[in-house]
Automatic annotation (TrEMBL):
Pfam families: Acyl_transf_1 (PF00698). The lineage of its organism: Bacteria, Pseudomonadati, Planctomycetota, Planctomycetia, Planctomycetia incertae sedis. SMART domains: PKS_AT. Belongs to the fabD family. It catalyses: holo-[ACP] + malonyl-CoA = malonyl-[ACP] + CoA. The active site is at S98, H207. It comes from Saltatorellus ferox. This is Malonyl CoA-acyl carrier protein transacylase. Residues 12-308 form the Malonyl-CoA:ACP transacylase (MAT) domain.
Length: 319
């Protein structure tokens, strides 16, 4: 494991929901290193992922396009920083929200770009298929406590699959499940002290048993993928602790599809280790906003646009 100063920024990578039409295009136009990553992605997948992300409008929001697109954007941005002197293995730790955990593992040297891209493409396809086979969704509980979320999940489970899916930050909790279960949650929310709920615009009930077929397909693919022990600490969504062995990587990435995302616990673990600076290479700045709700002290430097390069490198080189 690489040891580094707490002042060296940890790397954070966003998950699905960060996608936007055109993501990564400005990087590819500005930097040859980013253009090369997108070219590789098109070649590995056998179709133009770049065109799907840059020119196809709403298609970028499809689970099977958004996931490889976000992954490729993160890798392309980090490749630009690496070409200008940044050493990703100098980061003391890394983490990614849901899908972003794959980008974190690539950054940690767990697998190469082509292997990671094939995994996230399969993950997206399998999750899309599971969503179509079993109509389901996700629901945000505004201002709910963990206890309220668990109670409402229990209410919903009387009508179908219903689980706590994301514990992102205080008051930012998400349930996942079959539609009748979520309808029951919506009806019961006020009785449990939750004033507002909102159904999310997603393909299905991610991070719940609705995704079991996807988890099984992913587990099989992970067994066939060449995986190495991470060179830097990768904080697992499933355990909110570092994953250190090849076996643990395979197990946590397969489990993650049906298990709750423990993002708040993951970030609190990092902060408890003394980590107070983070770098967010990827589309948007979603994780910076979430971290502010968890703890306002840490600094998060974005690397979302080509104009962020100098500040990102300065942050990475500060000590």
């Amino acid at each position: 494991m690489t040891n580094a100063s707490n002042m060296t920024p940890a790397l954070l990578f966003p998950g699905q929901g960060a996608q936007a039409e055109g993501m990564g295009k400005d990087w590819a136009e500005a930097f040859p290193e980013a253009a090369e990553i997108w070219s590789q992605a098109d070649e590995v997948l056998g179709f133009s992922l770049s065109k799907a992300c840059w020119e196809s409008g709403e298609e970028v929001n499809r689970t099977d396009i958004a996931q490889p697109g976000i992954f490729t954007t993160g890798v392309a941005i980090l490749s630009v920083l690496e070409a200008r002197g940044f050493d990703r293995f100098s980061a003391p730790m890394t983490a990614g929200l849901s899908l972003g955990e794959y980008t974190a593992h690539w950054a940690a040297g767990t697998f190469d770009f082509a292997s990671g891209l094939r995994l996230v493409r399969l993950r997206g396809e399998a999750m899309q298929a599971a969503s179509e086979a079993n109509p389901s969704g996700m629901m945000s509980l505004m201002g709910a406590t963990d206890e309220q979320a668990e109670a409402l999940a229990k209410v919903g489970s009387e009508f179908g699959i219903c689980q706590v899916a994301n514990l992102n930050a205080p008051g930012q909790l998400v349930l996942s499940g079959e539609h009748p279960a979520l309808d029951a949650v919506e009806a019961a929310a006020k009785d449990h002290g939750v004033r507002r709920v909102r159904k999310l615009v997603v393909a299905g009930g991610f991070h719940s048993e609705c995704m079991r077929p996807a988890a099984d397909k992913l587990a099989a693919a992970l067994e066939e993928t060449e995986i190495h022990a991470p060179k830097i600490r990768v904080i697992s969504n499933v355990t909110a602790a570092p994953v250190e062995t090849v076996e643990a990587v395979r197990e946590t990435l397969a489990t993650q599809v049906c298990a709750p995302v423990l993002w708040e616990k993951s970030m609190r673990w990092a902060i408890e280790q003394g980590q107070n600076r983070f770098l967010e290479p990827g589309p948007g700045t979603i994780l910076a906003g979430i971290l502010r709700k968890i703890d306002q002290e840490p600094e998060v430097v974005p690397a979302a646009q080509p104009g962020d390069v100098d500040a990102a490198l300065a942050s990475a080189n500060a000590s």
